Amino acid sequence: MICIFLGAPGSGKGTQAKRVCASRGMKYIGTGEILRENVAAGTELGKKVKAILEEGHLVDDSTMIAIIEEEIKNEDSFLMDGFPRTVCQAEALGELFGKYGKNLGAVIFLDVDVEEVTKRILGRFSCPSCGKDYNVHIDDIKDKRCSVCGGELLQRSDDTEDTVRERIEEYSRKTAPLKEFYEKKNILINVRGTGNPVKIFERITEALDNKN
Ligand code: ADP
Q: Structure pTM?
């Protein structure tokens, strides 16, 4: 199956998308993660996008479309988290699907309001050693240490208050219109993204099962 996850920054898309991929054997394609890996490795792409990510802006469409073409062209079962993020990207994705003979199975919109996502992002920490994620509003991390490996917990460099505000504005201006774009194609499934993460996962699983 081919699936897109839409939702505001901090809506829990990344966490849920990875769980869905693990449970269904789908390839996870997270564009934010791909960009951050390039920044960390100091590649040409990484050098080009580092400042853009830190300011909370979007990377240009043609760069992102080229990345996604490479990621999807030889895959049949995958989930995209963070792409498309603009109507231009969504249109280009439709063309790529035509070019490679692929069909979009479902678009999950994870619905969480802006106040809640801001609070979640500013409370988000992770362990750079083992990758475990934490949130100060849920987990007890007063000592800022990982309960699994003892590593020091850090925040993402784009999870500062100013950048978060900018990312949410970018989302409202450029990404939120995709909801209507896919609604018109009758492929959008709205999933409530608040409450217990296990329950949210069950809602998504049920929605995808009904599609099959
Ligand atoms: P979040 O959804 O939590 O904001 P992501 O990890 O999905 O974060 O993305 C982090 C950053 O990577 C974005 O703020 C943006 O700068 C860049 N990015 C990721 N995907 C795209 C995309 N499809 N188009 C443009 N920029 C992107």
A: 0.88
